[in-house]
Design goal:
Order of helices and strands: EEEHEEHEHHHHEHEEEHHEE
Number of strands: 12
Largest sheet: 6 strands, mixed
InterPro entries: AAA+_ATPase, ABC_transporter-like_ATP-bd, Metal_Ion_Import_ABC, P-loop_NTPase
CATH superfamily: P-loop containing nucleotide triphosphate hydrolases
Bound molecules: adenosine-5'-triphosphate
Radius of gyration: 18 Å
CATH architecture: 3-Layer(aba) Sandwich
Family: Belongs to the ABC transporter superfamily.
GO molecular function: ATP binding
Number of helices: 9
Keywords: ATP-binding, Nucleotide-binding, Transport
Strand content: 25-35%
CATH topology: Rossmann fold
Protein name: ABC transporter ATP-binding protein
């Protein structure tokens, strides 16, 4: 099976600082990856490469069979769904929820004069239903709770039926109820065979949805460990990565971390 993502000896340097250092990693279409690591480890930079938003300083990144730097990124980007707070900040507060999702079909934020196709409207409504947002269709994005806004961001990112879905800390700042609601929805999505490859960055193992298959731990811009999720999300690996004795437990498909 062809890789959806392939990093070979990839480094990213900014202003003389090495942010990612010799990363080699690949993901298949059926994979659901979680990326873990301390603050500043390079997780968001890794996701920006996967999103074809930046180029590596050295090494080779292949996204959906296109090599960054040699392929036209404008052909690749529409095939990638990317939900991040940075993108959400570009959505006007006054935008209606249905339009936040619909405009993804035209790769813009903020409705202008696009003439939407009926088929796009039908799909947007189906996606809103899948993410438990139908009742909010006509509400203003800026008036939603954090949890609702996060779900709208994800709904927008899957609107175009992407071949690769990237989620940057989708559960950050959510309260317990909103987090659990989101993790449950993500879990259902991750388990669906029709879902694309997923790569999710998170700070907390409690936010890893059931159905995720692989994990990559990054420390100081390098891969600390990567592979099948149960082999990687362990007390030993996370203790070493965070420099603190941690006990990781797994119950009913969900992980918990606490200091030893
Ligand atoms: N343009 C830049 N110039 C210099 N350093 C940068 C630049 N952009 C990012 N960095 C540094 O690169 C490192 C990795 O940043 P990145 O945002 O990828 O980490 P992260 O693992 O996502 O962090 P966090 O968990 O805090 O969100 C950080 O130390 C950051 O300060």
């Amino acid at each position: 099976m062809a890789s959806v993502l392939s990093f070979s000896d990839v480094s990213v340097t900014r202003n003389g600082t090495t942010i990612l250092d010799s990363i080699s990693w690949s993901a298949e279409a059926s994979d659901r990856w979680v990326i873990l690591g301390p603050n500043g480890a390079g997780k968001t930079t890794l996701l920006q490469l996967a999103a074809a938003q930046i180029h590596p300083s050295s090494g080779k990144v292949v996204v959906l069979e296109s090599t960054l730097g040699s392929a036209d990124v404008f052909d690749v980007r529409p095939r990638i769904g990317f939900a991040s707070t940075a993108l959400a900040r570009r959505v006007p507060n006054s935008e209606r929820v249905i339009d936040v999702v619909l405009t993804a079909a035209y790769s813009v934020t903020g409705r202008w004069n696009e003439q939407y196709e009926k088929v796009d409207l039908r799909r947007a409504r189906r996606v809103l239903a899948e993410w438990s947002l139908s009742h909010l269709e006509d509400r203003r994005f800026g008036d939603l709770s954090d949890g609702e806004q996060k779900r709208v961001q994800i709904a927008r990112s899957v609107m175009t039926d992407p071949e690769l879905l990237l989620l940057d800390e989708p559960a950050a700042s959510l309260d317990l109820g909103a987090r659990e609601e989101l993790v449950q929805l993500l879990s259902g999505y991750a388990k669906a065979e029709s879902a694309p490859a997923i790569v999710m960055v998170t700070h907390h193992v409690e936010e890893i949805p059931q159905g995720f298959t692989h994990a990559l731990i990054i420390t100081d811009g390098t891969v600390h460990s990567a592979g099948k999720i149960d082999d990687v999300v362990t007390s030993e690996n996370l203790s070493a990565a965070f420099g603190l004795e941690l006990i990781i437990t797994k119950d009913a498909g969900r992980y918990t971390a606490r200091a030893a």
